[in-house]
Amino acid sequence: MKSIEDLQVAGRRVLVRSDLNVPLESGAGGGAGAAGADGPSSPAEAVITDDGRIRASVPTIAKLAERGARVVVCAHLGRPKGGSYTERATGALSLRPVARRLGELLGRPVRFAGDVVGDQARDAAGALADGDVLVIENLRFEPAETSKDDAQRGAFAGKLAGLAGLYVGDGFGAVHRKHASVYDVPRRLPHAAGDLVLGEVAVLRRLTTNPDRPYAVVLGGAKPSDKLAVIGSLLDRADRLLIGGGMSYTFLKAQGYEVGNSLLEADQVPAVRALLAEAARRGVEVVLPVDIVAATGFDPAAAHEVVLATAIPPDREGLDMGPQTRRLFASKLADAKTVFWNGPLGVFEFPAFAAGTRALAEVISRMAGFTVVGGGDSAAAVRSFGLPPDAFSHISTGGGASLEFLEGRELPGLTALEES
Ligand code: ADP
Ligand code: MG
Description:
By secondary structure, the protein is of the alpha/beta class. It is built from 15 helices and 17 strands.
């Protein structure tokens, strides 16, 4: 893969695909209109609750601007609903507040175009001077961005590519998507990988080729169906798997226990059972929670108590791991030389149910080995606990992307960047 050092960018328009998909606290219906990104914030606009991904995107954009590129940044935000651009653009998913934050972090003005490949984007891109930075509107307002139809995606990619003469792929969190801005545009323009993508790939290579042992993987988060494939391939690589969070209930169910109202993917129980059997055959230790913080409902103020994982009352819902499990997980990590962690171990967004995730983050942050945290929510959790970013060897901006890499799958965005 080429890096941005290999591109002659001075005086040229460079389309940078970044991952600016930050968590938002919804404001109602912000984002219409055409004022600059540095204009006043409208009260209806969404508020960014964790700007980690914007911060991670700054170095590549700054470097290009400093080298005299005319930078056009494109990215997606959330999953806008609707069949047309107009419908999708009426929600609260404008990139405008993100562009404003990017400007603050870059310390230079950032312009904003209120469409993706329309008149505003074309005019604004054409008006850029050397070193200027422009953010265009949410790529996913254009239904073709994510279309499964190659021709439809390709037609849109042609218009996007028309905004610039060079392409830099730096949106690591999206490289596992075969989307127009990720896969089709780099096939149409001379391209390179941004520093963020190169850094992420270097870390993941270290996890997949000869990791120092013992190698422990901690997986949490909401749905086992998202992560069963990676667990399957991790049986080849990891020595120990610690399973927590919302997906641990499907594992407990697979072992024959009732889980009350806890998150359960009943249709995944047979697959989980097969996986547990395979792990046992290969001598990979699978560690499950032994106690649970069981609540009366999915609510930040819900009454709750600690129960054994094997005795969750029928009317309760597990929202965090209990203190015994915190100690158990810590002991299973004590001698590990490599740790990969993806997925919060409880509903950390509710302070009453954040203790398990916080305890694990603290344990890993004190470890001396190679420690990687991956996943949008996991990274946001780590930052919300105020742990210094250098407490981990690496905090990945990509959840799905890093998991698919670990699985050994081909990632369309990386494939496109590797082609010359
Ligand atoms: P990441 O973005 O780091 O890859 P996921 O998206 O897989 O992580 O999962 C994150 C979500 O999982 C969080 O929003 C968290 O609230 C949720 N979660 C964790 N534990 C539970 C639980 N016990 N019940 C319901 N949801 C849970
Ligand atoms: Mg997530």
